[in-house]
Fold this sequence. Notes:
The protein is of the alpha/beta class. The protein has a single domain (2-162), classed as Diaminopimelate Epimerase, Chain A, domain 1, CATH 3.10.310. Helix content is 52%, strand content 13%. It has helices at residues 2-8, 12-18, 21-35, 52-56, 61-71, 100-103, 108-123, 127-145, and strands spanning 41-47, 82-88, 93-98, 161-162. Strands 3-2-1-4 form a four-stranded mixed β-sheet, sandwiched between helices. Helix 3 (21-35) runs parallel beside helix 8 and helix 7 (108-123) runs antiparallel to helix 8.
Amino acid sequence: xxxxxxxxxMPYWLTRRRFDRAACTAIxxxxxxxxxxxxxxxxxxxxxxxxxxxxxxxxxxxxxALAVFGxxxxxxxxxxxxxxxxxxxxxxxxxxxxxxGIAARVPQSDWEAICRRMQTAFRAGRYGEGVADGVRAVGxxxxxxxxxxxxxxxxxxxxxxxx
Length: 163
């Protein structure tokens, strides 16, 4: 019941205040900077809360992140090299979903460690900075496993999506 209440009463304006124009610009810049070092594509989605039908059917933050991965077309890259950082504000949750080309080489524990670092920043009230740092950490992982070969092009938008 408490999860329902968190989602039903989580205001969109609070998400927008935590991720204001300056925070979104910093996140967009971080994505652009790190993508020059690796062959992956990073996308950031920040979601305020789940809708009633998702709550009714017990959709977890992970399941929602997988759905958003598909909705935003993060999977639609030439090298199967997309990564989604999904923040679900009402659940205070961060999920990282990697396309199959990346998931085959990067252990889930690497992504979980980055999620924990981001959640620590959120608890300290550093939302924009926490996501930008998470983007840089994802970029470090991708640079280790998928260095830039010079032929990479930007296939995903760098600006975060907030809904």
